[in-house]
Amino acid sequence: MSFLNQYSFLIAAIVGVVLLGFLLFRKSVDRSSVITFSALILGLLLSFFLLRPGTSSSQKVDEVLGQIGSGQPVLLQFQSDY
Q1: How many other β-carbons are positioned within 10 Å of the β-carbon of residue 29?
Q2: Rounded CA gap, 82 and 37, in Å?
Q3: How far apart are the C-alpha atoms of 79 and 65, rounded to whole Å?
Q4: What is the average per-residue pLDDT within 2-28?
């Protein structure tokens, strides 16, 4: 189950590309099919690189504790990469 959780975007993207490729190119290869297929691949690549989680801006505990609060109420949101 952990494998599916970590690679769900990649699995869904591959299934979507294969399925759309099969549906678009089963009869013939024309310009609109190639454009649609290319747009799907470009959209998936862009969304992967723009939406993937990055590294934290604060690595040291003291630095994080100094940023939390500073006399103001704070809403903390913890996220996991997986």
Answers
A1: 9
A2: 29
A3: 17
A4: 89
Single-letter residue type at 59: Q
| Residues 74/68, Cβ–Cβ less than 8 Å | yes
Please tell me which residue, 13 or 81, carries the higher pLDDT value: 13
CA dihedral (58, 63, 64, 70) in degrees, to 10, reads -130
Distant-in-sequence contacts of 60-64, Cβ < 8 A, 24+ apart:
none
pTM score, two decimals? 0.60
Q: Where are the domains of the chain?
A: 2-54
DSSP class of 71: T
* DSSP-derived secondary structure letter, 80: -
